[in-house]
Give the backbone structure.
Amino acid sequence: MNATRRSLRWLAPAAAVVVALLLWQLATAGGLFTRDQFPTMTDTVRALGDAIGTEAYWDSVLSTLQAWFLGLVIASVLAVVIGSALAFNDFAYRSAASVIEIFKAIPAIAILPLVILVLGSTLEMKVFLIAFGVFWPLVIQVIYGVRSMDPTVLDTAKALGVGGLRRFFVVTIPSASPYLATGMRIASASALILAVVSELVGGAAGIGRNILRAQNGGVSAYPVMYAYILTAGLLGIILTGAFFLFERKVMHWHESQRNIRANEQGARK
Amino acid sequence: MTNATVTSASAGPSTGRTLPAGTPVLDVEHLRKIYNEGKPHAKMAIDDVSFSVDKGEFVCIVGPSGAGKTTLLRCISGLAQASSGRLAFEGTPLTSVPDQLGLVFQDYGRSLYHWFTNAKNVGLPLAARGVPKAERARRVSEVLAEVGLPHVEQQYPWELSGGMQQRVAIARALSYHPDLLLMDEPFASVDAQTRFDLEDLILKVRRDLGITVVLVTHDIDEAIYLSDRIVVLSGSPSKVREVVDVPLGQDRDQVATRASDEFLELRRHLLDLVMPHGA
């Protein structure tokens, strides 16, 4: 009884994926699309299978991941440091708020031509673009998180004689962490998009450049192009899942996670 | 460094803090607190409050609701600045929260850190004072046992009942052996039975550790049951209406003490002071 229900929870989404793949195959092999418009599912999966065996495939995945990781880390560290400094000082916060809003409104893609001119088709270019793109929304999350700290939490820290850097790491950051976690989750997704775009448009090594190459390779390479597009999607799913697990582990004490656990237990009964 | 061992052995942690005999632990003279001072919407919360607390005393501060009790507590703990008047903790003028002061808030749900286990919560002020890890662990178990909560170290505060959470908060305030324990309506958010238990717990702690306690409450019965002296505040902006001695002795009992004639007589007198007159 319990076991069947648990297997059903995994079976249903898996079945949905299978159905989607079958529909794809039906639409392409059935003649709705021609080969030069949209490759069949089987061709694409075969191309993906072939690509997985090559070193170039894994190099491109690693290049994309590397830029994603570096950009995200740099942006997060800067956002936490600068955001906290601004949040603690009302005057600085008021002064900087409008500038941050303006920069946040600039789509990172818009500065891509400039970044390519200055840095070329390099890893640095990708990392800069990603860090620039995710820094602004992240820094706003940090500011909100720190400013919304419960006054009792701060009073308690003062009363216990917890000050300076210890207070920052042990009280301020955990108390702002729900905001940070949301910011990071969104930043992770945008960072991957920016990485692929910078490769696709900027020509730096990675999944994006391989999509472009396959596109230039003509109709016969279309399945390869879609194989890389699928790869980008799978990478997105994996990163989102990793973030989900990370959040569940690190934020297990937070009320939202406690409620999720309680609801899951309730649903199982 | 050596603070840890010194504290448990002798009176104070830092050197040269042997106070002259008769120096009150807390001395409040003509305290006044005005919010938004100098602005059109300035509001006087405390007009003129003076009292002092001697070593080993248990003093309650009572007053009608809105009398600025919490403001007063924030001022005498060093969390808020007084607008005028003189505040001294163990003879030293008060500028921030003193190291040797323990504070317990009414809202344990927000004052305990959810991201830490109970042990880490209780050990936090010790860590901030540089107590080494092993010594910290020993003292955390010791103080949790003192408040009647062995075996909760690895649990999180939110896994405990309200009364138990407030015990953890009390343990945290006691972990560094403060000279003065300051409590802001500590038992206002728990049920009646738990409240009696916690009142007796704090009396026991005080007996065991010989600690000085100042407790703010709106509950007159609680104030009489716990204290040696009661500072009665008037309504806002607060002044001291009267300081009432409570000669009920050291040993108190929830049933017998509360039914005694002295208790009832004090209760009548205090109610008379706190209840609005005229009207």
About this structure: The two ends of chain A are 11 Å apart (CA to CA). Chain A has one domain: 47-268. Chain A has a mean pLDDT of 90.
